[in-house]
Amino acid sequence: MQSTLSKFSSILLFLLLFCTSVLADTAHINYVSSTSDHYTKLKSELEDLGYTVTGTNSGTVTLSDFSSKDLHINIAGDSNCGNTCKTAYETYIGNGGNVIIAGSGVYNNNRAGNIEALIESKLSVGTITIHPYNANYSSNANGSYSGDASSGYWLTRNLFTMQSGGTAIASNSPGGSTYKSWAKYDYGSNGGQLFVTFDQSQFKNSVSTWMTRFYAFFQQTLENEGILLTATYTSSISNAQTTQITTSRAVTHSGNGIYINQVGNSNSLTIVQDGDDNLIAGVGSTTNSLVDADITGNNNTTTLKQKGNNNVMLFDITGNSNTTTVDQGSTSGADDNRVEFDINGDTNVLSVTQNHNNGIGNNGHFFALDLDGDNNNVLASQLNDGDKKAFLSVQGDDNDIDLIQQGAGSHYAEIAVGSDQTVDITQDGSGQHNTSVSMTGFSATLDLDQSGSTNQTYSLNQNCLNANGCGTTTVNQQ
Question: Which pLDDT tens digit goes with each residue over 31-69?
Fold first, then answer.
């Protein structure tokens, strides 16, 4: 008897949810009592942009307060940025951090002079001359700005000229002028940036039009310079993934089929297939030339089970002490689960469970993993009704990924991580929850919980530049 596992073509156009999502960012602000209103306003604006914000009410700059943050802002009144402050900023910016420092609106006090010294002496990124007056000067965005940011001016009490280095991003006139109000300086090889202005009152004053224009400029500056990471994306499957799934679901085989090529060392393999049109491919495979199902070398332990309806497994394990356990529709009512994974090396542990599609007929679940090496530990469970989907690519080092998709909703997740990351994601409930996560570099943790009946969408693109790690991002969407 011939059985064709092909049910995917009718559901290719799922979850076309277009959304602009602010990615996870962290910020720290140094302020003093005289600028507490500025801090409150700035914190509120940053939180509206998706930042997690912490603050220190002190004129003293302490590196540990912000070393793991994406952005540090100093609006600490007349407090000096002395040698300790400048050294902390040199270290932080050198590691890829972003500093915004603002003067107090007095052109000739010590704070203004120390900000100038930070540019010219400590970082040696340029030379400036502070304009020797305090007055209400117009400030206008220069360059790639739109909307409210380019609709007119806001006020600043100080200007400066730039003799060398840096890029002016706001000036005294709309088309740019000799006199600047904001400048950006790049420092080091890790992408660190210093932003300088000389008047903190820009962050809070009583004229709403000026505040609207300023914070539009502020947001677009963060976006333009890669500090505020925004993403417009489509929560749907890509063409490549469509091809991959279509291929894996279009295998024609006789009976349940098992085709495996296992070579060498002390592998232990257990396979149980019971009922319907299960397939574990390999050894030249079948009609569509699908192979996979290849275990090669070292102390791999593989346990595979398939019970109920049209399950397919196409897997490849190569080398070292991998432990793999996969259980698909092992309960009654299971529908159309698929698993594709490729593991190359080291002491990886993978456990995949897909079942409980009691609302049979929805082509429930699909899982694809490409995991390259080191001490990764991946657990993925897709349970209950509806299409769950999940695409994971784990690469290297000490990653620990924990994905659970359950509930009646038809969820979506696409995760790619780098070194030393920990990702814990739960999608539950009847809502159509969507997640797209990419984390690379150093140590960082994401703990995301999407649940409930309301559709939730989240996207994180985090590249930690701090060798000491970037902490934990915790998000609850309900």
Answer: 999 999 999 999 999 988 878 899 999 999 999 999 999
Q: How far apart (Å, rounded) are the C-alpha atoms in residues 190 and 91?
A: 11
Total number of domains in the chain: 2
First-to-final CA distance of the chain: 48
From CA 247, how far away is CA 240, in angstroms rounded?
A: 11
Structure pTM? 0.51
pLDDT, tens only, 174-217: 878 899 999 999 999 888 999 999 999 999 988 999 999 999 99
Please compute Rg for the chain using Cα positions. Answer: 28
Residues 277 and 202 in one domain: no
Structural domain containing residue 438: 2-17+233-477
Specify whether 290 is located in the same domain as 368.
Answer: yes
- What is the Cα–Cα distance from 386 to 408, expressed in whole angstroms? 6
Show the tokens assigned to 270.
Answer: 């257990």
Q: Look up residue 216 and give its DSSP letter.
A: H
Q: 178: number of CA atoms within 13 Å, CB side? A: 4
Q: Domain boundary at 197, 228, 259, which?
A: 228
Other CB atoms within 10 Å distance of the CB of residue 226: 12
Same domain for 395 and 409:
yes
